[in-house]
Amino acid sequence: MKQGTQSVARILALFAASFIGTAQIAAAQPTDGKGPPPPSGDDNDTNERLGDTSILMGAVQIPAEVESCADTDGHARLVCLADLLKSDVSDEVLENLQLDYSVTEAKNWSNLPAGAFPARPGVFLGEFSVKQRGIVKAILMEAASLTDNEGYDEMEQTLNADDYIGSISTDYGVGYASYNSKFAFLGTPAETGTWQLYYGGHHLALTNTYTDGLLAGATPSFRGVEPFPRFEMNGRENMPLMQEREAFAALLRSLSDEQATAATLEGTYRDILAGPQADDAIPQSQEGLSVSELSADQQALLLAAVQTYVGDINDADAAIYMAKYTDELPDTVLGFSGTTEVKDEDDYVRIHGPSLWIEFSIQSNKSTGESGNHPHSVWRDLDDDYGGNTE
Questions:
Q1: How far from 21 is each of 24, 94, 272, 347, 385, CA to CA, in Å?
Q2: Does pTM surpass 0.85?
Q3: Could you read off the pLDDT of 16-74 as tens digits, one per residue?
Q4: How large is the C-alpha radius of gyration of the chain?
């Protein structure tokens, strides 16, 4: 599928306005609502590579060759699988798959669909053979949780969401198809040195950074979905981000009137603050209700909400993050705006700790043309974003 330069420019302008809206806060300086512009990238090259088909990731089988990595697990297995994938692809595909590491490149993630954000690095999933997609699937399943509706399963359902939108949208140049999510290695996967497992597309960004064989950072981690809360596509019911919404609603419903007043943020939040190309948007001061004012049961509800984000990565690494965030609870703050049901447009929740930042925002549907709302959501770590690297 090819897309002319003039049409691409129109799409970029349209989606920058529609998707990246900056939160409008009463105490803040007025904004134009468009947020930072996406990097230009190589528009012609990327959009000439766009596809319009489903890759049916749920039906893709993991190939027998993956058994050659069966004696390893964790980071060593990721390296083994990465080498297996690289050895199977063509030189042309490898050129887009194995890239040099830089934080500048790592920051090229977005909630926008592929045609509206050509700066994403990597290989489109549809450019891999079916066998190669099976190896990619094995890599993602090793890096992510295997819990239903979280981790890898959430990634698969997000791909199904793009296929759903593509089945009803008439805006063919935007790239609504599971074909168009991208996968890359930023830096060479190895037991020493720094590299990032980059996977992202419309409404999803996985940015796991590894240094000397250990996970140095699992953030920024972005999740969103439209339609919401449920839809049928590719032979299954899909409901990604329902656990997150339900966890936040349970937490907010538990608040007393006094607690809810203390947790209420000033202004209206129409989107998350710390979204794509907004790495410096997290406020230095906390606003809301101190978690130390919550009961033990309420703190457990808050940690359950945090788990729906941290639990997207593999269990061993998730346990390390959860221990850190639990220790930081006395210095963590909960804030929200809108209703406690977290389902109406402009409903917004945030958890802000010494290192933890989570946002969940509900906004109106934009891609399906259907009535209703959909979420944007992000997990960031003030210490570990991009593995703690600055260049």
A1: 9, 35, 8, 15, 22
A2: yes
A3: 433 333 333 333 332 333 334 444 445 667 788 999 999 999 999 999 999 999 999 99
A4: 20
- Tokens for 267? 């202004």
- Tokens coding 369: 């043309």
Amino acid identity of 149? N
pLDDT tens digits along 69-114: 999 999 999 999 999 999 999 999 999 999 999 999 999 999 999 9
Look at the block and give the residue holding tokens 């468009």: 34
Per the rule left: phi > 0, alpha: psi between -120 and 50, beta: everything else, 346 is left
